[in-house]
């Protein structure tokens, strides 16, 4: 059985790296979906607990700052 040439070794290494990159990208997408699900869960909990109100509505005119406080 002949030994692989240097070019064949590099091509095999590149194929392996491309596969690892593809797997990492898929894991990244799964992580992003999980983070999005966590955000939605925290929003739902905060609304349920009365910590926030949804949807956010900007109040009318802003009150002037108290002098001495920036």
Q: What does it look like?
A:
The protein is an all-alpha fold and 70 residues long. The chain has one helix and no strands.
> What helical percentage do the residues reach?
55-70%
Task: Give Rg in angstroms.
Answer: 27 Å
What number is the mean pLDDT? 84
Number of helices: 1
Amino- and carboxy-terminal Cα gap: 79 Å
Strand content: under 5%
Keywords:
single chain; 1 helix; mainly alpha; 70 residues
Please specify the SSE layout and strand pairing.
Blueprint: H1 6-48
Quick structural gist:
Helices cover 61% and strands 0% of the residues. With 70 residues, it is mainly α.
């Amino acid at each position: 059985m002949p030994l692989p040439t240097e070019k064949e070794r590099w091509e095999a290494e590149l194929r392996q790296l491309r596969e690892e990159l593809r797997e990492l990208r898929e894991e990244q997408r799964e992580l992003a979906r999980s983070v999005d699900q966590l955000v939605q869960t925290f929003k739902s909990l905060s609304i349920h607990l009365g910590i926030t109100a949804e949807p956010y509505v900007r109040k009318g005119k802003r009150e002037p700052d108290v002098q001495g406080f920036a």
